[in-house]
Amino acid sequence: MLDVRRLGLLCDLTRLGTIAAVARANAYTPSAVSQQLSALEREAGVPLLERTGRGVALTTAGRVLAEHAESVLAALERTTAALAAVSTGLSGPLRIGAFPTAVRTLLPTALVALGEQHPGLELMVTELDPVDVPAALRERRLDVGLLNDYDVVPVVPDPSLDAVPLLDETVYLAVPATAPITGDPLRAVRDADWIMAGPGTLCHTATTLVCRAAGFAPRARHHADEFTTVLALVAADQGVSLVPQLAAERPPPGVRLIPLPTRRRTRVAYRGGAATHPVTAACVTALRDSVDAFLRR
């Protein structure tokens, strides 16, 4: 019989590439991970790993087993969801991970609704960058998480997770209210100073690509990852920036927002097979209702 936990470690190795990375993701030592994978090889009866210099790679059998292991893990999630569906009332922890603008604008309404409709739930929110959400879901530190990307920077889906669309946002060019903008707004600010997210972030990459498509490279004067800070700097005439709709709900005085064709897309993600779990379904419904209320505002 193949051990489910060890199958999870094999899937992690497929995704992360090294024993050390798998150990960090699971709070194990590299030696413990190696021992668990060796035990899985004995259970499978075939070699699953082969040495490649200082690292390891999956054998053909290892790749086949990892592919089927994803299906096994998803089936276990569906089984858990089916058992939960026959219980009376929703109870237990619901751990939600979301990026800062969603925590401020969407989560409060959703949490109130969940608390009123399902008082047995233990609601817990963690503010996370979207890039950290998949690992937190896989490691069961979260039950539901919000992911986003931009149409100019699509993110490759994680095969171990399922997701449904939640919000398709307008992206705005934020400029000082006194800035003379005529014609194409991006070309009008090609020589302006820019307020950009930190290099390597999704927002930084999206800004760079949007500007490149307009025929220039943005000149970063300030770096800020929190949109409240970004808008405060724009209001202080420190530069221009790109801001998604969730962050632009209440801009400070002195900021003009110009809609662009670029879109930011947010999805609700959870472990593969968990879509029918009553707690997951209740959370998705509450978030969608919150988005509807936000858009009506």
From TrEMBL:
Gene3D superfamilies: Periplasmic binding protein-like II (3.40.190.10), Winged helix-like DNA-binding domain superfamily/Winged helix DNA-binding domain (1.10.10.10)
SUPFAM superfamilies cross-referenced by the UniProt entry: Periplasmic binding protein-like II (SSF53850), Winged helix' DNA-binding domain (SSF46785)
GO molecular function, one term: DNA binding
Alphabetic keyword roster: DNA-binding, Transcription, Transcription regulation
Pfam families linked: HTH_1 (PF00126), LysR_substrate (PF03466)
Sequence ranges assigned to domain HTH lysR-type in this UniProt record: 2-59
Family, per entry: Belongs to the LysR transcriptional regulatory family.
Record protein name field: DNA-binding transcriptional LysR family regulator
Source organism per UniProt: Saccharothrix longispora
